Amino acid sequence: MTSRPTLASLAEQLGLSRQTVSNAINAPERVKPETLRRVNDTIAATGYRPNAAARQLRTRRSRNLGFRLMPVEDGINGAILDRFLHSLTENLQEHGYRVTLFAARDDEAEIRSYDELLETSDLDGFVLAGTHHGDARSDWLLARSVPFVTFGRPWNVSGDDKDCAHSWVDVDGRAGTAEATNYLLGRGHRRIGFLGWPAGSGVGDDRRAGWASALDEALTPADLDALSVGVPDGTRQGAEGARLLLERGATAVVCASDSLALGASEQFRAATPGNPAAVIGFDDTPVAAAMGLSSVAQPVEQAAKEIVDIMRHVLDGAPDEQVPVTHRLLKPRLVLRDGGGPLASPLSS
Amino acid sequence: MTSRPTLASLAEQLGLSRQTVSNAINAPERVKPETLRRVNDTIAATGYRPNAAARQLRTRRSRNLGFRLMPVEDGINGAILDRFLHSLTENLQEHGYRVTLFAARDDEAEIRSYDELLETSDLDGFVLAGTHHGDARSDWLLARSVPFVTFGRPWNVSGDDKDCAHSWVDVDGRAGTAEATNYLLGRGHRRIGFLGWPAGSGVGDDRRAGWASALDEALTPADLDALSVGVPDGTRQGAEGARLLLERGATAVVCASDSLALGASEQFRAATPGNPAAVIGFDDTPVAAAMGLSSVAQPVEQAAKEIVDIMRHVLDGAPDEQVPVTHRLLKPRLVLRDGGGPLASPLSS
């Protein structure tokens, strides 16, 4: 530790002034290319790293991004954001960035945390999850020119999400539920229900729209109305919603989450024992795998990687470089299992 | 943002020099108590916060603790550390601390990350999980006087863990498997197997010891030997281990993880259909709840809280205060379910 190179020892070794070495690190445009190359070679060879706090004052870069950790709910659906965080951390690490975690109960508290973190931790930017209608967080960050990317679309009530002023990466939930519904149609089902959340959530309405679009020709609008049930997320609520759908003649159901699907699967298994694969969940959680439930898988690892790529472009570019706003909608994948209960083998999809 | 108070505006408002206000913040012992009170009152009223990087240079405190995020494996057992991280983040947040996440493949990479983070992020300390025999991480941190607390005992091969030179909080796994085994004895089982990991892991051997101690009088040493199986963690491996135990006449099994229990439960259900509650897992994951499996629950929220309390004591104390090393062993809780499959109701324990 004591033999670690310093700015002074580096300057001495190179026969340069400390100011020149400092410039090479913090304002390379002021240094001749030949000198810059010599300094960089020596930095690489000696493993010199500038003191963080001192460097931060000069470069205003902490190489740290903030991310809000959501509270644990039933441990089933939250798993997708935990997986995203693992992947985000690993991808950022590869490029010398870290994640600073904070907790917040709601958007307002999250914004207060942004304010405080920007002041006390000098974060370079944020990654946001859980975007929703009327999301105040992105406006707050845009107004202050804080770099950020959201995992999730802005879900503007009106207007095209493509017009959105900030970068986002999202998964095409509508395509996922449409694929799931088409699969069930192919298995001979007609009265396929949708078990989602109460109307008004961007993510939930999008997943419902995919189901509805696939059934456009098979069912009347009145049937579509009857076969769409919205309940708060949870296993118990899923069981209740499934009972309602079974009463209305549903023979299969596409669900907005694995929590709902877990509750629904018990009801459908009991009501239609010969028909085990009639419930499809969303997020392909460990619980879905353990229960042998089919589910729509989000490519969260790819989403994390794309978010990191966008962030690097913004943060590692020249200060006056105008980085284009990027919108990426990723395709989910239907993971089929035979629904026969625990440890059912995956089928080819 | 533009109207945010600064050191200068604060000094002007108070009719004090900037140096006096700065001293009140960074070296309060140099300021008269009456002046200190006035400055602190004004700071509280105006919401003044010193610039982070500048303050860091003076106080050498970032109010940030490092934590290594483990890679996702099957998504079942890892859930316990994700829950711990959520709770750690929320507890730290209450006291103005944040978590900086990093990824590392092994201990060596984790130590390289410590080294780099201490240099580039000025972390105040670390929280470690996954302690094990010959853990080089704690020695590295102790040698450099870096504050840290481990979630997990040091698992010294020889010597008493109480002699350990650093603070730790852990859960008494041995007590958990002993309670699970005693419960099965109370239900009339005698040939109760243990399905764990290969010998040599501190955590795994401890859980096995709890099972063995509870069966000390019921079984011969030869029977204990035959009824203890060690396999790598995983559902498939759990199913294989369970087949071996069933061949050896086991009627029930205590498992070192819910991944193993999930695999075992299918085998035991098939072999002894009238006896559904004969498999007990460890960690009470969402998968165990979904499958109606009994499991030993770790009080991870309490563990996180105690770790934060110890860290605060170390970090918020006076620089020359000698904080005693703390060791806390928490009691787990047996969560009983009827084993009847998905959504089995919890029984009273």
Q: What features would you describe in this structure?
A:
The structure is a homodimer of 349-residue chains. Chain A has 14 helices and twelve strands. Chain A is of the alpha/beta class. Chain A folds into three domains: 7-59, 434 Repressor (Amino-terminal Domain) (Orthogonal Bundle), CATH 1.10.260.40; 64-171 and 300-331, Response regulator (Rossmann fold), CATH 3.40.50; 173-298, Response regulator (Rossmann fold). A six-stranded parallel β-sheet of chain A has the order 2-1-3-4-5-11, sandwiched between helices. In chain A, strands 7-6-8-9-10-12 form a six-stranded mixed β-sheet, with helices on both faces. In chain A, helix 11 crosses helix 12 (258-271). The N and C termini of chain A lie far apart (55 Å). Strand 2 (98-103) of chain A pairs antiparallel with strand 2 of chain B, so a sheet runs across the interface.
Q: Please tell me what the overall shape of chain A is.
A: elongated
Order of helices and strands of chain A: HHHHEHEHEHEEHEHHEHEHEHEHEE
CATH architecture heading of the largest domain in chain A: 3-Layer(aba) Sandwich
Query: Terminal Cα separation of chain A, in Å?
Result: 55 Å
Radius of gyration of chain A: 25 Å
Query: What is the CATH superfamily label of the largest domain in chain A?
Result: Response regulator
Strand order of the largest sheet of chain A: 2-1-3-4-5-11
Q: Could you say what the CATH topology of the largest domain in chain A is called?
A: Rossmann fold
CATH class of the largest domain in chain A: Alpha Beta
**Please, how many helices of chain A?**
14
Question: How many domain modules of chain A?
Answer: 3
Report the count of strand segments of chain A.
Answer: 12
How large is the share of residues in beta strands of chain A? Answer: 15-25%
What does the main sheet of chain A amount to? Answer: 6 strands, parallel
> Helix fraction of chain A?
40-55%
If interface size is counted as residues with C-beta under 8 Å from the partner's C-beta, which chains form the largest one?
A-B, 55 and 54 residues
